[in-house]
Amino acid sequence: MQGNDFQYAGFGSAAVHAGHTIDPNYAHLTPIYASSTYVFDEAEQGMRRFSGQEKGYIYSRWGNPSIAEAEDKIAALESFGVTDDKGQPLQLKAILHSSGMAALSTLMISNLQKGDQVLTHFSLYGGTQELVEKVLPPLGIEPVLADLLDLTIAESIIKSNPAIKLLHLETPANPTLNCVDIESLTYLAHRYNIIVSCDNTFATPYLQQPFRFGVDYVMHSTTKFLNGHGTAIGGVLVGKDMERMSGHITKVHRLLGGNSNPFDAFLLSLGMKTLEVRMDKHCHNAMEVANFLEVHPAISKVNYLGLSAHPDHHTALRQMRHPGAMLSFEMKDGLEAAKKCIDQLKMCIRAVSLGTCDTLLCHPASMTHYSVPKEKRELYGITDGLIRMSVGIENIQDIIGDLEQALR
Ligand SMILES: *Cc1c(COP(=O)(O)O)cnc(C)c1O
Questions:
Q1: CA 52–ligand 1 middle distance (angstroms)
Q2: With a 6 A CB cut-off, is 324 part of the ligand 1 pocket?
Q3: Residue 97, helix vs strand vs coil
Q4: Is the pLDDT of residue 81 over 90?
Q5: What is the DSSP letter of 376?
Q6: Closest Cα to atom 4 of ligand 1
Q7: Most CB atoms closer than 10 Å: which of 75, 136, 140, 298?
Q8: Distance 69 CA to ligand 1 centre (A)
Q9: Which atom of ligand 1 approaches the CA of 235 most closely?
Q10: What is the pLDDT of residue 1?
Q11: Cα separations in angstroms, 133 against 62, 144, 244, 374
């Protein structure tokens, strides 16, 4: 038998192979199991499957072989080389969702109830911010948005707020690239019996493994670097309390219905095979682009975690393997200059989202943050002249060449 008990020495090998189980027809890659339901040999077998006495699939909202492969691969990567309190290899369970937002919904709804509060940093993915500010409050769950870069502020808020039950971190954060200290914040939260979740979308498990720092849950929008090719929307929720993950969390996931589908799961498993090589190239290119932009006369500021000028440079170096592939820069001449640069791109793509092989650029003031009042977005550093860039894996001469001509 191949695979099952081999201990991968390297992350990249796990990215290629982990999660695969031998196909009954010996297909090399797990086929796309496009089937909504599964057949029982006899009524007794149906009963054994429903009661959990016999392992086996029942219905694809509950589980599907194509989906299971992607889930097991993500669990293997988030736990790669990580040990539990007893020094044993960390066990994780991942549940694939139809989107990052669906994974967040399961996380919030399964862990919070009426009267609880959720604490998070003020710089967040827009959808997450709207979820905690607009969807949760009518259910009796209130958000507390604070500056979690400052541990003293974080502790005083936690101390004076016994209703806080969940601390949700996003690091590096959208769109500022703020990095909060996962280990210190998790230690602090656990002293007050607060559970901790971390959105690891920007980093991926190759660059950062939040379970190493003690968090209880990790979630991703798999739409981004994990899929890596921009072919499908998806999300995942990963947890280390195996009983709770297989029990309550699975129940909530199945009943909220934000399940993935076999085709998207197949694309995700395929994309993740190249995670290590892609991330190395993404990060290498991003550093080169940051160095190019930093000295460009049309640009006043470059925000990249790999530059020592970034306020969270040291936090990033401490908890991440490389500083990632996301950066932003500000045009000296503001709005018109930013629009002109975006409009003149010839190879790089004008689009929101991130994490694809292709370099993507967007102009937050006219796109993602168009509806946010100017004063409010400027508080988060989203000025009229800011351009956000997800650096791709093209050859660096072409990325810089395209930027050079667009900035002319
Ligand atoms: C995209 C994104 C999400 C939401 O994920 P979807 O797959 O679009 O639902 C959440 N968090 C971060 C950091 C993201 O970039």
A1: 33
A2: no
A3: strand
A4: yes
A5: H
A6: 100
A7: 75
A8: 21
A9: 7
A10: 46
A11: 30, 9, 27, 19
Strands 117-121 and 164-170 come out as: parallel
CA of 309 to the centre of ligand 1 (A): 27
Would you say the CB of residue 100 lies under 6 angstroms from ligand 1?
yes
Across the beta sheet with 235-239, the strand order is: 93-97, 235-239, 217-221, 195-199, 164-170, 117-121, 142-146
- Cβ-contact 248, 112 below 8 angstroms: no
Residue indicated by tokens 């790089």: 348
Who has greater pLDDT, 6 or 293? 293
Q: Closest ligand 1 atom to the C-alpha of 354?
A: 15
- Cis? peptide before 172, omega within 30° of 0: yes
Question: Which residue owns the Cα nearest ligand 1 atom 5?
Answer: 100
49 CA distance to ligand 1 middle (Å): 34
CA distance readout (Å), 29 to 2, 32, 241, 275: 13, 9, 30, 17
Instruction: Determine if ligand 1 sits within 6 Å of the CB of residue 170.
Output: yes
Q: Which residues of 236-261 are buried (b: 16+ CB within 10 A; e: fewer)?
A: bbbbbbeebbeeebbebbbeeebbbb
Does position 379 have pLDDT exceeding 90, yes or no? no
When pLDDT is cut at 50, 70 and 90, the band that residue 372 belongs to is confident
- Contact between residue 170 and residue 182 where contact means Cβ atoms under 8 Å apart: no
Residue nearest to atom 2 of ligand 1 (CA): 221
The residue with tokens 């703020």 is 178
Q: Which domains does the chain have, with CATH numbers?
A: 11-31+63-272 (3.40.640.10), 275-407 (3.90.1150.10)
**Structure confidence by residue, pLDDT tens digits, 311-370:** 999 999 999 999 999 999 999 999 999 999 999 999 999 999 999 999 999 999 888 888
Give the angle subtended at the CA of 18 by the CAs of 317 and 12, to the nearest 5°: 40
